[in-house]
Every structure is written in C-alpha cells, then in structure tokens.
Amino acid sequence: MCVSLPGLVISAEDGQLTGRGMEGFYRAGRRLLSRCQVRVAGREPLAVQARTVGADRARFVGTVRASPGTGPDPDVLVERVRHADGTERITLRSFAARPLRLPVEAALGTDLAELAAVATGAKAPEVPADVHAAGLRWSTARGASAVTADPPPSDALASAGLLRWEAKLPPGGTWTVELRVRPNGTGTHGRGPDATSGRAAVNPFAPARASGDDPRVAHLWRTCLEDLRALLLRDPGHPTDLYLAGGAPWRCGPAPAEALVAARMTLPLGTDLALGTLRALARTQLTGPGPRSGMIPGPRRDAGPRLPPGCTATEATLLFPVLLAEARRWGLPDRRTQELLPTAERCLRWLRGTVGDGEFLVDPLPGGPVRAETQAHAHRAALLGADLLDAYDRPAGTELRQWAQTLRTAFREQFWIEDRAGGRPAAARAPDGRPVTHLGAHSVHLLDTGLLGSGASAPGLLDTVRAGQLARLLGGPAMDSGWGLRALETRDAAYNPFGHRGGAVRVQETAVAVAGLAAAGFEKEASSLLRGALAAAEMFAYRLPEMYAGEQRTEGGAPLPHPAACRPAATAAAAGLLLLTTLAGIRPDVPAGKVTLHPVRGTPLGEIELTGLRVAGAPFSVRVGRLGLAMVEEAAEGLQLGA
C-alpha cells in the first residue's frame, strides 16, 4: 500500500492489479483503476521482489525468459515503480546477448467504485473503456478516469481495455513506459497537499532528524515523518490549512480527535500543523442554542467489550483548548492564538455547561457511564484552558480551576478500587454508581496531565501513591506485552489479543504511557514499554500500524499485524516521534521566554540527538548523553534554558 493523500494505491506482492479485493489506484476515495496487468512476450513476469520505497512508493521486480534455448536463466528484468499520486513507471532491462523485439501489453480496467463500497466487498461491473488521447478513458454518472501512456501505445483496444507497445532492446539496453492515472482525464485533483503547489512547498514539519547509539532511532524517526507527510490533507475551502487524515486505507478523510492527538504529539516539529488542524476544526464547531453548542463534531467509537461506544466529539472538544494552550507554549504566535481563542472558549463553556453543578463529565449517551478517560481529558482541558484564559485576561479561569479541584477530590474518592494488591482505578462508573473494574490502556490518560507539550506540570487526578500503583500495573506482565501496552489486561475474561480495545497493542496509548510514566518519574516502566514499541517498529520496517496483536513477546517471535489496522496511521506515526522526543523531556514555555529539559535519566536507548526541532519558531537541537544529561546545542536567541 502506498499513500500520498488524496492518492492511494493497493497492490498484491506480484505487482499486478487484478481487480480482486481492494486492489487499485484510488483518488479522493474513488477507485480510478482496478486492473493493470502487464505481460511481456505474452506472459506475466515472474515476481521476485516487492518492497516499499517510501510511504508513497513501491517497487516490484519480476523476470521474463524471452530468448529460446537459454536454459533456466531469465534474460529480461521487469521493474515497476508505482506511486500513490497515480503514476507507474515500467522498465524492461535486457541481459540477452542479442537484440530483442518484445510485445508489451497492459490490460486495464476499472469500476469507478467508492473506497467504502469496495471495503465492504460490494461488487460492481467494469465500466466500458474508450480510446482517449494516448490511452483509455472510462466514464459513468459516478465519475470518470483516464490512463495516458508515455510513449503512446502503438495500438489501443477499447473493447479489451488493452494498450500495446513493441519494445526494442539492444543487448544490455532498457525500455520504459510511464502510465498516468487521472480523474476525469484532467491534471492533479483532490484535497491533498499536492493539489496546487506541490508537497514540498506546504510541508508543515521541520526538517528534523534523530540519531543516537541505537541505529533504530534514525530509521523510526525518518519513517514516521514520511508517513505523516503522506497523510496530510488540505482544508478544501482554505488550502493553506493542513491537517492529518486518520490513516490508510480505512480513514482517508478527516478524523477530528485523531487529528488533534497527532498534531499535539508533533508539536516539537513546529506549530504549523497544530495551527492548520485547529483552524480546520474551528470551522466545524457547533454554534447556536442547544446542549451540543460549542462541540467539535465527531463519530462514535467502539470502546471494547466492557463499555458502550464512546463519543469522539467529546474528546475532540476537550482536546481543542489543550492543543491551543500547548501550541502557544511551543511558540504559536499571539495573533494566531487570539484568532482561535473564541473557539476554545466555546469548548470550555460547553464543558462547564455540561457538567453544571455536578462533579463529573457524564457520557452524552443517555444512561451512559461516567468514564475515567473522559474525566482525565476534562481535567486537563480545565487546567490548561484556565491558563490560556488568564493569559489573555478572559473570564472563567478561576471557575475552571475550582471545578478541576472538585473533580480531583471526587475522582480520588469514587474512582479508586481498593484490593489486596494495592488497588486500581475504575475504568468507569455505571449509571447506578457501580465501578467498572477492568484495567485497560485507557488508564494511561490519568498520567497525562499536560506534560506531553506544556511547559509546566499540572496536578493529576491520582495522588503520588496511586499513580505509582498504576505505573506498576501498567508495567506488569498482564499489560506490558513486550511489544507495547495491551488495550486490556490478559487476566480479564474478555481479553482477546486481536481485540482493538480488548487486548491489542495500540501505539498511541503506548506512547502516551511512556510519556506520562517518564514525566511522573516511573522510568523503569516507561523504558520497558519504549523498548518493546521500538522492537515492534523494527519488525514492521518502522512503518507502525495503529495496532497489532497483544500476544506476549517470545524469543525469535514477531508481533502479528491486526487485519483492520491502518498503516500508515496518523496517531501511530506521531506516537513514534513522541516516543523519541520523550527521552529529551523538552518542556517549553515560550511566553515566559524559557525552556527546561527533563530527560529520561536511565537512557534506555543510549545517547540520542534530536536536531532541527522548532521552539519559538526557531531551530532547536538537544543531545542526551549516555549518563542521562541533556545539552541544548541550538535554540532561539533570548530563550532562557533550564533543567
């Protein structure tokens, strides 16, 4: 699979597109080409290698025996380099001792189906083709697409969807044809960053690099950046604003909560992505009368076997002021912050209005539970939102802090389950007040008090002793799989290693756990989860899926991919960067003119160096030595450094 949104291409390992399953070239959610079967000298090349060159490109190599009487050795190599932007370059290379004249055919076809329909297994007939320019064209009421070839084919048969060439290859020579797939037979189209001025011109990420004693650090960093660039989308009405799609192939469109989470994790690369994400989502905010006024809309999301589906609109609404407050501390200019402040105020007003005189933020589903994860999001939003309001002399900061204090007190009394092993936090409280007792990865949010991107810590929902107990539970064998943090502990009767909320390892929660544990001083547990996630990344060639099976790691084993996982995924790619930046513990407070460092002293990966990050809009580089001491090597002028 190759991604460069809005372009996507899915292939089998032999490189042939046969139209089976989800194979094909897609753009903006429509399959423009479902078949592209190449034959040389009347036969399909024998596949010998398929590999991903980058997030947006794949290379397929096959061989053909074109000369009679040459024994088992092939004499023609066929290379296909496929790009998610809709191009494929086919190159024939001759190893024969004499000149070759080889017929080359490409059998093409499409159903112009929607990606969602293809994913559900719906079948649609192929659309008849017409000869068009230097290729073929397909058109229905659903849309149109065209394939053009350079050089043009010597023959085109619309009835068979066939393009033909005669390749002339001298000894050791090459012959190349490039196919281009486009919607409506026009040029570039869609919502992706390449839709106007080119991807490089709108890259919101700093040209940052990571290196260190562990060579996997550089590979993971580079691949995560590639994946994030591949998932960038433009806001259709405001092309300067970029945000991240959820992931490919299942969530190639906007996913508000995931976009905010990923933008928050990538703040060390600069604030441009955060700004584009916040602007795009601010335009979707619900206004006017009613209990949902102020919310950022979002779909419901499955919460696993123990709880009903959750509301991502609640999560996105609470994340909006958090991301804005933290982006300001990383260097988002005042004028940009003030531009988005009214949206953040409406989010916070919705929070206070929904809570009312109560202690907790209740699930919006009628008769739904009071979730611990939601209280963690709300508590963080209240504290960071209050700081944001105070900074611009806006009212309600004091009221938010007072409610956060009330929430902390009530949470520590009502959400902790005592037992002989030291206790655990409840996952939720049922409508009748009974605690929902299962232990899952959702509990990592209780450790995220705003330290992922803020300049100062905030009091947590758990006190120090109970936070330590939670750290021990997360670091135990029931939760730590050796490849990362399971979504549900193995001792639970509902545990399923492939359960996406019932036992699989989700990279986002693993990274949040590592960051929260490290910030709270539980470096042993943080280091174990970090090493496990890095080992899993290596097994996936550093292109992390959003989740994989939570089976226990064994000697010589490998993590099993989840069949429904997006790969690449925005939160997984951003989480890979968070895992590495956590080691440096960068805590900026640009409005106060300072930045402090709290590195992981145990240096679980040895020495690590991060260069080209962005703080206060200027390059920022830091190195953490083998003794756990951090040294800033580049920073904005006038920025006061501390430790």
Map the helices and strands:
Layout: E1 2-4, E2 7-10, E3 17-18, E4 24-27, E5 30-33, E6 35-40, E7 46-54, E8 57-64, E9 76-83, E10 87-94, E11 100-109, H1 115-119, E12 129-132, E13 135-140, E14 143-150, E15 155-157, E16 162-169, E17 174-183, E18 209-212, H2 216-230, E19 232-235, E20 238-247, E21 251-254, H3 256-265, H4 272-282, E22 300-301, E23 310-311, H5 312-330, H6 334-355, E24 370-371, H7 372-391, H8 397-414, E25 416-417, E26 424-425, E27 428-429, E28 435-436, H9 464-475, E29 505-506, H10 507-519, H11 523-539, E30 547-548, H12 570-581, E31 586-589, E32 594-597, E33 608-615, E34 618-624, E35 630-634, E36 640-642
Parallel strand pairs: 32-36
Antiparallel strand pairs: 1-2, 2-4, 3-6, 4-5, 6-11, 7-8, 8-9, 9-10, 10-17, 11-16, 12-13, 13-14, 14-17, 15-16, 18-33, 19-20, 20-21, 22-23, 24-27, 25-26, 27-28, 29-30, 31-32, 33-34, 34-35
Model description:
With 643 residues, the chain is α+β, with helices and mostly antiparallel strands. Among the domains are: 2-194, Glycoside hydrolase, family 65, N-terminal domain (Beta-galactosidase, Chain A, domain 5), CATH 2.70.98.40; 477-581, no CATH class; 583-643, no CATH class. It has 12 helices and 36 strands. It has an 8-stranded antiparallel β-sheet. Strands 3-6-11-16-15 form a 5-stranded antiparallel β-sheet, with no helix packed on it. A hairpin with an 8-residue loop joins strand 22 (300-301) and strand 23. The longest helix has 22 residues, at 334-355. The radius of gyration is 27 Å and the shape is elongated. The two termini are 44 Å apart. Residues 186-191 and 195-201 have low confidence and may be disordered.
